[in-house]
């Protein structure tokens, strides 16, 4: 009889009739070689950071990033200095009919504000998960959140990508659209229009969202909230709390408690 070897990093496994819920944990700096999961999945990065490489592209992920991964996606991973914790939902027989969304057949990472909010809501449902119907409802709502980020414009032009990188590099500074436009040799109105087309927000909102993404990583650690706020470019803790709650739907403290509770379950 062939001995079954559990997947690397697997901590727990819950079986339902059509779906499976898996919890993975990876060590600091751990790597995986190129491989295929062979079962379609949606995964949420709960804690840590990772780099995922395909043959023609790569992605960097931080807490509340979500990936849709078809069964045939050949990929390799490099986990960050703090390791990583990942929650995955898999469908051994393919996605059920109620999830018949065309984009579930395409490999993609999601990092935007709708995804963070949807992923947080999904995790809240996991805390008291009792049956498959509850998991189905939570998964439908998660997929609906991901669909808000769908766009026919996948890759921004190189000059616009440089604008986004400048906003990230200078996340703790206020940068005016006219400065960005001058550096890119385009008209400010044109920059604002094209930026919104590709990133679904204006440059100020993009920079604010980047600060929130940085803060999410720090919230999965034991750093005091006031330090999380100041280290990520917010004026003070109350400013950080207001913006976080309006974007994510819960306070930074509640989010931290949620992540810790799931990690201890």
UniProtKB/TrEMBL annotation:
Ranges of residues in domain HTH araC/xylS-type: 161-258
Entry-linked Gene3D superfamilies: Homeodomain-like (1.10.10.60)
SMART domains the record matches: HTH_ARAC
Molecular function GO terms recorded: DNA-binding transcription factor activity; sequence-specific DNA binding
Keywords: DNA-binding, Transcription, Transcription regulation
InterPro entries: AraC_XylS_family_regulators, Homeodomain-like_sf, HTH_AraC, RmlC_Cupin_sf, Tscrpt_reg_AraC-type_HTH
Pfam families to which the protein is assigned, alphabetical: HTH_18
Highest taxon in the source lineage: Bacteria
Signal peptide boundaries: none
Keyword DNA-binding found: yes
Name of this chain's protein: HTH araC/xylS-type domain-containing protein
Organism: Flavilitoribacter nigricans (strain ATCC 23147 / DSM 23189 / NBRC 102662 / NCIMB 1420 / SS-2)
């Amino acid at each position: 009889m062939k001995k079954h070897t559990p997947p690397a990093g697997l901590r727990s496994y819950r079986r339902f009739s059509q779906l499976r819920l898996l919890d993975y944990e990876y060590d600091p700096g751990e790597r995986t070689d190129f491989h295929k999961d062979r079962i379609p999945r949606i995964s949420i990065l709960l804690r840590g950071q990772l780099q995922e490489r395909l043959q023609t592209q790569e992605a960097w992920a931080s807490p509340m990033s979500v990936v849709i991964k078809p069964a045939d996606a050949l990929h390799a991973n490099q986990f960050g200095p703090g390791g990583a914790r990942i929650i995955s939902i898999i469908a051994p027989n393919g996605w059920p009919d109620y999830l018949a969304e065309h984009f579930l057949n395409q490999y993609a990472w999601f990092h935007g504000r709708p995804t963070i909010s949807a992923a947080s809501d999904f995790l809240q449902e996991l805390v008291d998960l009792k049956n498959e119907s509850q998991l189905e409802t939570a998964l439908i709502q998660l997929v609906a959140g991901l669909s808000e980020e769908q766009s026919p414009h996948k890759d921004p032009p190189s000059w616009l990508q440089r604008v986004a990188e400048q906003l990230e590099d200078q996340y703790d500074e206020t940068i005016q659209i006219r400065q960005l436009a001058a550096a890119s040799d385009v008209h400010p109105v044109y920059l604002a229009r094209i930026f919104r087309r590709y990133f679904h927000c204006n440059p100020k909102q993009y920079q604010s969202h980047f600060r929130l993404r940085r803060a999410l990583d720090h919230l999965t650690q034991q750093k005091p909230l006031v330090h999380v706020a100041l280290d990520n470019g917010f004026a003070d803790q109350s400013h950080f709390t207001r913006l976080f709650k309006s974007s994510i739907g819960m306070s930074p403290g509640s989010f931290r408690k949620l992540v810790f509770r799931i990690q201890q379950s």
